[in-house]
Sequence to fold (614 residues):
Amino acid sequence: MMKKILVAEDNRLILETIFHSLTREGYEIIKVNDGKECLKMLEEIKVDLIITDLYMPYVNGNEVISIIRDERKENTPILVLSAAGAEDNVLKAFELGADDFMVKPFSLVELNVRVRKLLAMRR
Amino acid sequence: MAQIKPNHKNLIIHLLSSICIFILLATMESKGDEYIDTKINSAQAINTQSSCIDTSMFASLMEETPVLSDSSAVDSEKKESAIHEKSKWTAKKPHNEVNRIVLWLFGDNNVSEFKSRLIDFGKNNLPLFLQKNYLRLVEKTYTYPIIIIFIILIVGLFFNLTTVLLVMYFTNKRKNYKERYISIYRNSYEEVLRAYLFGEIEWVLALQKLKKLKKPLNRKILTDVLLIFKENLRGEMDSQIPQIFIKLGLEEDSLKLTKSAFYFRRIEGLKALTNLDPENAKKIIPNYLNDSHTTVRTEAQISFVRLYPENPFEFLKTLTKPFSRWTQLSSFYIFRLHQVPVPAFVDYLDSEIPTIRNFSLRMIIFFQQLENASAIYKLLDSPLEMTRFLSIRAVNDLRLYEGKSIIKKMYQSETGNNKLEIIKAIKNISNDEDFDFLESIIRSDSVSLKTEACRSLYYVNNEGRERLNVLNQNSDLKIDQFLAHVTDQRN
Fold:
């Protein structure tokens, strides 16, 4: 059965590129453009991994992580993909419950490896 | 009987009032006509009596130049009275012909006076080339019925409004069309480039699919797409993206943009070249480091930091304009983000530009660079307060013990902030010899300096604490309150 990955990213070009890259790897990708849509989608479907940006409209990445972990008590792996790679941002994301952090510009090969690793850990 | 709705009622009242106004205007118009006819007839009667006044004389009268023919005395009297009447008629002519409503509202004399004032104003204040048209305009205003002027004004207003609305409509339509156009081609270029970058199609096919690349707007769209790819992706694609940029000759467009008269286009060009064609960027960036526009200068300096990782701040030596705080922050961020090797900032301490010296001092403190302490001591003598402040902080943070005597000497002549910084530095680099110095500050009047001196003396060593106890017991300084504050963990 195909693994479902929810990708929340406000930059359409990057969203499509991640979609393209991960679909080739055999995953089912659900695309959303902001944090609000991400949380709404998570109410409707169950996913195996969440990839989220930090700076998004309406609800930002940190809030998304916080809601998933603290309010909904879900343990779906979360990979943060952000250009805000300062130490403070990384630490905060991990403290809130992120499982991995990738800084933009990022390598698609590296993303695929990290996704595979996170999904394997979940098993 | 059908009921009249309130809306209809209003409409009827409106219509009736309009008809009333129209009738009123028409009545006034006819009265005005009668008035004019009477006046013209009387003038014509006089005119026939005075045979000497011909049409040319009438014209000269209009110009207010009294021309009289050579006749008998009786004739002359008649003529004079005729001229007088004519003049009166001329002065009243505009009134008679025209502004019946205005005349009726404001009175005959007031309107005439207002007209002569308007003419005087024009003659006294307007330049000669405008005077003719101005006087003609005043004459016209007094010649044509005011209702026509109103109609012309309303038509003009309507025309203006229509023009504005049409311009807005077409501008909006054009903007929407452009946005749609950009969106369509952006999506198309993204798809083609993604397919090419993922190795799904060959370059020849990709080139065929990249439509309308001769158009400047399309080339700009493609450059933007490549920039987003470059800024977000690395790995294999990192090298492929600049290749596409050069293969399509987009670097020529960016080079042209850097020569534009508009600063934002210059920035656009610099940004594209820095990210997608670093070799060309390296050639032109030095020309923009001292650009007259601050934003262009900032962009060029940030680009320099990115393009020369082996010596990112070398441009500071050639800078002739202030090094802005924004550039300092941005270049420091890029410097840290790209893990660029740290240069020796002491090399820039002798710069003639204060902002560069201060930035270098901050960097020296941040990276704890101890290469050349004497260069820092020299700056303790700077005429600028901020530079001295940062130098004192450097002495403190880098624990430059040799600088202690210098900062102690300059204490008396320093500003409040710098005095505080000196006392803070003494805390970290002092020994028993400095107790007298700190005690003298404790005996001063300033509360903040006193507090800081107590803190320094307390934290130097145990002897310092003893000295404070002795001071507290043997003097009336009442430093126990200061000590309580200093030793409180919350402070």
In short: The first strand of chain A starts at residue 4 and ends at 8. The two ends of chain A are 13 Å apart (CA to CA). Chain A touches chain B at residues 11, 13-14, 16-17, 20-21, 24, 83, 85, 104-110 (CB under 8 Å). Residues 25 and 116 of chain A are 10 Å apart (CA to CA).
